Amino acid sequence: MNHCEPIKLSAFMDGELTDETKEQIHDHLSRCRRCAKTVAAYQQVYRQLDDLPIHPLKPLFLSRVKTRMQQHSRSFLRPHWSALQKALAPAAICAGIFLGTFLGIQIKSFMPTLSSNEPADVGGYIYADFMDTIPSGSLTATVISVDVVSE
Amino acid sequence: MTDEALVEQFQDGDRDSFDELVNRYEQKIYNLCCRFLNQNEDADDAAQEIFIKAYYSLDHFNRRARFSTWLYRIAVNHALNVQRSRRRKQWLRSLSMISKIENDKIIQVHDQTEDPHSRLEKKEEIERVRQALDRLPEEQRIIVYLHRFQELSYKEIADILGLRLSTVESRLFHAKKRLTKLLNVSLRPDYDHLTNRGQE
Question: Model pTM?
Fold first, then answer.
């Protein structure tokens, strides 16, 4: 007697064959003890696998996923934000120094007019005290008192 | 409403449609993770991570494929990664100890009426089957999980894993053959019984 290919018996068990082949194997199994034994063995393996316990899913799975997603998006932003801060800090210091120096030079260029204690004609009268004491190119630690007197 | 329609809604900006997809697949994905990882907590964590990955990738999902196939692909890859990284850390904790404790808990919950002897036998049987599954090559074990525990067809498994149908068929056959030996299955020609189950 010709026996079925074991791989076909396996597919037969899983319902993966065409109806025609299924029918042929079905007929064969009723006559062939050896092939029937093979299928029975596979079937017993499946029965043992099916006996493995199924763990029930804890309730509120969706809300756990959503909470996790919120944490995920926060933790995604956090390292980027701190990296941005780290990158911007030296740039901000440099910009501050540059701006301070630039403005200091600009103010110094007004000094002959402003330091003479005479009103300057810049759209109104600007009267400044102590401008002579401002060090060249610096705005630091200087309190400037400016009175704008409209005409 | 079909999965694909929900995906379309999601891609059109309705983020809430993802909730329905989670509701549809949470138990299946969790079960798959349980099979891969054996521990409830790890499986729950892994299942959450799978859905988060899916959420952030869903905008790039090609709607010509099936959503379930795509989701299972993410799930299998993620579960395998977790399993591999856990194996690397195995020296930190004894997996079998935790697994045994889990089994005890499950059996206590489900079989409180059983006597201690049969409970112990059942526990040993579960452990034996688990160990047999663990001894299968990874590529065979995945297919057993997907076919037997997720009830997916050969075609669906082939799509998920990117394999040919004949490869799935062959790997599952070899897995069964090997499990027969590992579980020391007694061969009884109980034909009437098995043909009915074989065609279910």
Answer: 0.67
Q: Any idea of the CA torsion for B131, B96, B86, B75, to the nearest 10 degrees?
A: 50
**Residue from B98, B175, B101 nearest B132 by CA:** B175
- Which residues in chain B touch residue A37, judged by CB atoms under 8 angstroms apart? 187-189
| Residue B37 contacts A where some CB pair is shorter than 8 Å | no
Best mutation target, B20, B33, B48, to test chain A (most A CBs within 10 A): B48
| Distance of alpha carbon A69 from the chain centroid | 11
What ipTM was estimated for this complex?
0.74
3-state secondary structure of B131: helix
- Residue by residue, DSSP assigns chain A as -PPPPHHHHHHHHTT-S-HHHHHHHHHHHHH-HHHHHHHHHHHHHHHHHHTSPPPPPPS-HHHHHHHHHHHHHHHHHHHHHHHHHHHHHHHHHHHHHHHHHHHHHHHHHHHHHHTTTS-EESSSEEEESSGGGSPTT--TT----EEEE--
pLDDT (tens digit, 0 to 9) for every residue of chain B, 200 residues total? 899 999 999 999 999 999 999 999 999 999 999 998 877 788 999 999 999 999 999 999 988 889 999 999 999 999 999 988 887 776 555 545 545 555 555 555 555 566 788 888 888 889 999 999 999 999 999 999 999 999 999 999 999 999 999 999 999 999 999 999 999 886 554 544 444 444 43
Is residue B63 within 8 A of residue B7, CB to CB? The reply is yes
CA proximity to B183, closest of B126, B123, B140? B126
Inter-chain CB pairs, A–B, below 8 Å: 129
Give the Cβ contact number of residue A22 at 10 Å. Answer: 17
Residue A62: both structure tokens together: 């969706």
The identity of residue B20, as a single letter, is: E
Distance from C-alpha of A94 to C-alpha of A89, rounded to nearest angstrom: 9
Output b/e per residue, B110-148; b: 16+ Cβ within 10 A: eeeeeeeeebeebbeebeebbebbeebeeebbbbbbbbb
Q: Are residues A49 and B172 in contact, defined by beta-carbon separation less than 8 angstroms?
A: no
